Amino acid sequence: MASKRYRLEWLKLLLGLVVLGSYLSWSVVERRLSVEAQEYKRLTAQTQIVDNYLNDQLAAISRVLNIVRNNIPDWRAANDSMAHANHEMEEYLKALTDVRNLSVYDRNGTVIASSQPELLHKNYQHRAYFQTTLNDPSPDTLHIGEPMLAVTGLYVFMVTKRIVDENGEFDGVVLASVDPLRFRTTLASVNYADDMWSALAHSKGKQLLMIPEQEGQRGKNLAQPGSFFTRHIESGRDTNLLTGTVYATGEKRVMALRTIRPSGLYLDEPLILAVGRDLDAVYKDWKRFALTRLIFFILISLVSCFLMYRVQRSKRRTEKAKRASAALIQQQNEQLNALNEELRKLAMHDALTGVANRRSFDERFELEWRRCRRETLPLAVVMIDIDYFKAFNDHYGHVIGDQCLQSVAQQLQQYSARGSDFVARFGGEEFICLLPNTDFDQAAQYAESLRLAIEQLNIPHASSEVSGRLTISLGFAVCIPGNDSASTELIVKADECLYRAKAGGRNQAVGVDGCGAPG
C-alpha cells in the first residue's frame, strides 16, 4: 500500500510537471509561429516594394520602346533619314534611369539608329534576343532577354519589341539595354537587417544581381534541381516563402521569392526576385526565449523532485531495510540458480567451440533414436574429421588450431539450421551431426554442402596433402531404427564410412544406408 501511495504522489507531481511543460512548450511554439509569421510578412512586403519599382521601370521602358517604334516611319521619311533618331533617343534615355542604350535594328539585324553612335551599322542578327523577337509574330510582346556579359564586364539584359511594316511583316527590332546594377539602390533599400541579401534573376535561371554582392554570384545559373529558384518556378505560383539551404551560397535561409510579371505588359520571360534572411539570425531571440523556458522547467522539475524525495525518504528507510533482506535472499537464490545453469551448460557443451559435447550428443541421440523408431522415421548421423589437423597444429600452432576448430564448428552450426538438427564435438578434431527425419539422399546432399562450406572458408593449410586450404572428410549412415537394432550400430557405420573417406583420399563424403554398402 505504501508503495502504491508513493507512486500516486509521484504520478501527481509528474502530471503537474507535464501540464507545466505543455504550457511552456505551447508558449515556445506560439512564439516561433509568431516570429515566422512576422518575418514572412516583412519579407513579402519587401518583395512587393521591389516588384512595384520594377513594374514601373518595365512599364516605362515599354512605353519608350512604343514611342521609338511609332516614330520610326517619320524618322525614315526625314531628310536626314535616321540621323535625327539618334538625338531623340538620347533624350528618351534621360527618362530611363536603368537603361544604358536605346537602339533600332532593321530586319537584317543591323543597327540603323542608337543612343550610342558607336553601335551604328553593326550587325547583331545572330544574337539570341534578336532571333527571339524575330520568331515571335506578336508586336505587343515585351521580350526580356537572358542576361549577357557586356564589354564592360557587367551583366546586362535586353528588352526588345518587334517592328512591323504596313503589311504586318517583320521590319526590325527596337531595343533597350538594361543595366541591372542600377537596381542596386532599390534592392539595398529592402535589406532591413545585416544578415539579409536580395537577388534578381532571369526566369531561365541566370542571376543578374545580388545585394550585398558576393563573389562568383553574377551570371550564376540558379536553375538547378532542388534549388529555391527551381522550387519556385515549379510551384507555378507568383510568390513563395521557402526555408532551407540556398543553392547559390550554401547558407541556411528563409527566402521570399516573387515573379515580376507586370499587369498590362505581355512579357515573354519574367524576372525572379528573392529576398531572404539567415535562419539563425531570424530565430536568435526565439532561441533565447526557448532556452530560458527550458532552464526554468528543468529547475522547477529538479526542485520539486528533490523535495518529493526528501519527504518520502524517511518513510522508505524502514521499508527499504525489509526489502533489502528479502532481496538479498532472492539474489543469492538467483545466483545459485545461475551457477547451476552455468554448470549444466558447461557439462553439456564443448568449452572451446561452443557446440554440444559428447555427453550431450549421447543423450540427444538416444531421444531421437526412440522417437524415430516410434514414428518410423529415418535417422542420419554424419561424422566429420578435419583433414591432417595434427599437421595443421604442428605448422600453425595450437592457438591458430583452436581458432580453426571454432570456425569449423560455427560453419557446421550454420548449415544445421533445422530445429531438430544437432551438432556436437565428438572429440579432438572430430564433429558429429544428428539429422532426424533425413533420408539417404538428403544426408548425402547435406554432407556435400558441409564439405564445400568448410572448403570455401579458405583457411590456409600448407601441410595438407589434399589441398592448400582446410578440408574435411565425412562419413554418414542412415537407417530407420527398428526394435531389433542397437542405436550404436548407426554411429559405428558412420565411423566406418568416415574411415573409407579418409582412406580414399580425404576431402570427400562417403555414406551408407541402414542396410547397404557405402556410396
UniProtKB/TrEMBL annotation:
The chain crosses the membrane at residues 290-309. One of its GO terms (biological process) is cell adhesion involved in single-species biofilm formation. Pfam families: dCache_1 (PF02743), GGDEF (PF00990). Residues 377-514 form the GGDEF domain. It is a multi-pass membrane protein. GO terms for cellular component: plasma membrane. GO terms for molecular function: diguanylate cyclase activity. The keyword Nucleus does not apply. PANTHER family: DIGUANYLATE CYCLASE DGCM-RELATED, REGULATORY COMPONENTS OF SENSORY TRANSDUCTION SYSTEM. This is diguanylate cyclase.
